[in-house]
Amino acid sequence: MAIGITVLVYGAVGVIVKMDDVGLAMAQRPRDLSRRVGRGLVAGMPHVLDALAIIGTFAMFWVGGHIVLVGMADLGLSLPYDLVHALEAPVSGISAVGGLLGWLVNTLCSMVLGFVVGSAVLGVVSLTPLSTKGH
Q1: Where residue 20 falls among pLDDT bands split at 50, 70, 90?
Q2: What pTM was computed for the model?
């Protein structure tokens, strides 16, 4: 399963990276439909990459925050973990959508924690001598 997911993810990244090259090649073909689709791919790729940057940033906050949340609980600092689960509890019992709502609450809390921790790390790193330009 892990190999399949890895191939899928890296394959998707490869397709995204090469999509503008495919669009350029199509835009240079003699058929009008190919040229229009190719120009559309070339014109659309900056928007796709902008969206991926935003989605990727939120995903990193989510994953990083969840790692910190679970790691803190594993180290005996369970208050944040318990608080997130306490926030999940009221919505988790809702019929038909409780599981989704509970997951959304957990995900949002993880994103906020990831943002806070990431911002703190950025602040500390920005104050170090290694962060100055020219190094």
Answers
A1: confident
A2: 0.73
Per-residue pLDDT tens for 81-104? 999 999 999 999 899 999 999 999
State both tokens at 130: 């290694």
Question: Residue 129: what pLDDT?
Answer: 80
Predicted local confidence at residue 58, as pLDDT: 95
Residues in CB range of 94: below 8 A, 6 or more apart: 101
Amino acid sitting at position 58:
F
Q: What share of the chain is helix, strand, coil (3-state, %, to 5)?
A: 85, 0, 15
The answer to whether the beta carbons of residues 61 and 111 sit under 8 Å apart is: yes
From the list 80, 104, 78, the residue with the least C-alpha distance to 90 is 104
Q: How far apart are CA 77 and CA 92, in angstroms?
A: 24
Quickly list DSSP for 74-133.
Answer: HTT--HHHHHHHHHHHHHHTSTTTHHHHHHHHHHHHHHHHHHHHHHHHHHHHHTSGGGST
